[in-house]
């Protein structure tokens, strides 16, 4: 790795005119020279393309794709940075994120990837809650809960090339979870940066706040866990309790605090049976 690692930011989008400008600006304000920002649009018709055309520094294409993860794969194929991150079209980097990440990779040259902490915000960018983690633990991910937000997950491009793409044809909503497990199974060294890197937006035009999407994520996660060796059933439920407790113990040990109230409870008031997001593969009709 060079003295100044290069970073590729990939933003998949579709009809994101109301939010993508803030996402782009959050990347541009990083003041990080060794950066490329790639936007993969799924054929928007709402004014998103007009926003993209107003930024000469962007690399972008617009064409129908096979969904969110397919767009991510297309962005990865175009990325030239030493490290790659996926930043959704309604989320934003916090100030200094890329410098923190670059410094962490320089200080830990054996890391294949890293992730950081996240702040959940609402439609008006008001804070909902902050989620601080401790470390990457493959067993907690497999038997407990998926606690890594992919918007904070920076991965070596060489690792992406070695492990392969997101499995977009199999999983509509949980392909990133499968990839996080793939990192651990492959023995990748995943570090953690104890700083807030991203504002993760929950809003009425986003997938994350849609309960239909959440239910499908759970269905897909069951299949993924079974593939990776989670036994499910009563034993799986027991393991889940144990490894969720382990995650909280790790937080207490490494961060000096744990979660007294589950994050899902804090997000519950912001969830909707149906949000207003649109999908070019019919995801919004789950």
Spatial gap, N to C terminus: 43 Å
- Overall pLDDT metric: 96
CATH level 3 topology: Spore Coat Polysaccharide Biosynthesis Protein SpsA, Chain A
The number of helices is: 10
Strand content: 15-25%
CATH architecture: Alpha-Beta Complex
Question: What report would you give on this structure?
Answer:
The protein is of the alpha/beta class and 286 residues long. The chain has one domain: Spore Coat Polysaccharide Biosynthesis Protein SpsA, Chain A (Alpha-Beta Complex). The protein is 37% helix and 19% strand. It is built from 10 helices and 9 strands. It has helices at residues 20-28, 48-53, 68-78, 97-107, 138-144, 157-163, 175-185, 211-227, 233-255, 263-267, and strands at 7-13, 35-41, 59-62, 83-86, 92-93, 113-121, 127-131, 154-156, 190-201. Strands 1, 2, 3, 4, 5, 6, 7, 8 and 9 form a 9-stranded mixed β-sheet that branches. Helix 5 (138-144) crosses helix 9. The longest helix is centred in the last third of the chain and has 23 residues, at 233-255. The chain is globular. The N and C termini lie far apart (43 Å).
């Amino acid at each position: 790795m060079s003295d100044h690692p290069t970073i590729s930011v990939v933003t998949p989008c579709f009809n994101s005119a109301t939010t993508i400008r803030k996402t782009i600006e959050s990347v541009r304000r990083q003041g990080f020279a060794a950066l490329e920002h790639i936007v993969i649009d799924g054929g928007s018709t709402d004014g998103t393309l007009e926003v993209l055309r107003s930024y000469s520094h962007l690399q972008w294409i617009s064409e129908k794709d096979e969904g969110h993860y397919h767009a991510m794969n297309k962005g990865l194929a175009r990325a030239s940075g030493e490290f790659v991150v996926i930043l959704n079209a309604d989320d934003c980097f916090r100030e200094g994120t890329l410098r923190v990440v670059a410094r962490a990779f320089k200080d830990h040259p054996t890391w294949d990837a890293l992730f950081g902490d996240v702040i959940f915000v609402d439609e008006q960018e008001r804070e909902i809650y902050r989620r601080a983690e401790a470390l990457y633990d493959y067993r907690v991910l497999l038997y407990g809960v998926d606690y890594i937000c992919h918007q904070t997950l920076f991965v070596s491009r060489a690792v992406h090339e070695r492990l392969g793409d997101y499995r977009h044809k199999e999983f509509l909503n949980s392909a990133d979870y499968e990839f996080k497990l793939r990192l651990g199974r492959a023995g990748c060294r995943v570090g953690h940066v104890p700083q807030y890197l991203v504002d993760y937006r929950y809003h009425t035009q986003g997938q994350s706040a849609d309960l239909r999407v959440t239910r499908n994520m759970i269905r897909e996660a069951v299949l993924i866990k079974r593939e990776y060796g989670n036994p499910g059933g009563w034993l799986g439920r027991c393991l889940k309790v144990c490894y969720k407790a382990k995650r909280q113990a790790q937080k207490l040990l490494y961060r000096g605090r744990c979660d007294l109230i589950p994050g899902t409870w804090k997000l519950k008031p912001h969830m909707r049976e149906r949000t207003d997001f649109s999908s070019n593969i019919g995801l919004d009709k789950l």
